[in-house]
Amino acid sequence: MTVFTLINISLLAILVATALTVSRLRALYEAAMLSALFSLVTACLFVLLDAVDVAFTEAAVGVGISTVLLLGGLALTRSREAVTPRRRRLPGAAVAILAGGTLVYASQDLPAFGSADSPVQRHPLTDTYLHQSQEDIGIPNTVTSVLASYRGLDTLGELLVVFTAGVAVLALLGPLAHPVDARRRDDLDLVDYRVLRVISAMLMPFILLFALYVLFHGDFGPGGGFQAGVIFAAGFVLYGLVFGLDKAQQVVPRVVLWALIPFGLLLYLGVGVVNMLLGGSFLDYDTLSSDPAAGQHLGILLVESAIGITVAAVMTTVFFSFANRRATR
């Protein structure tokens, strides 16, 4: 048994143990922290599977922002799960067993892990993406070529989902109706902890610089707009937790964030409209320059920037909205 296999088995065992522990916990704060551990181990598995792009997002969203939002939600409700009568657990258990059994049965038709003759390896589209994309798009990172160019419409749909989800959450929290809350802003202020303040102040430039690197390096390696957006948001969330919401909202005012949420989506759509006005197809970046390869580079950079803007603005605004609400209990 190789070291790689042992690492995978160990990580899988940690995932199973963490999931079982979370399912048994009634203390929701502990469950939230264990869920962050689950996301961290999952990100490690993605790295082992060479899905570094997904690992970036899982680490920033699953470990960082989601955990903060879960804790913020618990601060508005209660920290212990209500006891469910045993008779009401049976339907849920039956559905879980049925769904699990169906998945296990369906997995019997999957090719062997790493099989060289699997449909993914033998399909003609694979050769197009891996080899022809270098001539069509001129981007070394095939993932970026697929997501931002070949699947540009699909990625636009994903951005629209992020936009819609963000607007729905903000509508439920009511930040537009109540832009200023009477809640004391120093509830989340950790600035008195000198070590946290100093370390966070030292890390902030590197976090934002790394986000820019992930955005602009997405053509050549793991990265892109989604990953850069969540890293930007994680940096603003860290700043708000340590230095207080007042200072964080001075750096990124709410009005600016609310404007940036639709701006990214409109920028993405605008690139497509410009392509059509120049005589090309929607999101056909070749028309952006006399050199098709340069047009592809410019178009991909614009849409990746648009993705990063909307994702960062949505996640940061949701955090601010949670943090500014008054606890009802």
TrEMBL record:
Record flagged with keyword Cell membrane: yes
Domain MrpA C-terminal/MbhD: 14-77
Stretches assigned to the MrpA C-terminal/MbhE domain: 88-174
Membrane topology annotation: Multi-pass membrane protein
Regions crossing the membrane: 6-25, 32-49, 55-77, 89-107, 159-177, 198-218, 224-243, 255-278, 298-323
Coarse class of the protein's main subcellular location: membrane
Na+/H+ antiporter MnhB subunit-related protein domain boundaries: 195-316
Compartments, as annotated in UniProt: Cell membrane
Similarity comment text for this entry: Belongs to the CPA3 antiporters (TC 2.A.63) subunit B family.
Protein name per its UniProtKB record: DUF4040 domain-containing protein
Native species: Actinophytocola gossypii
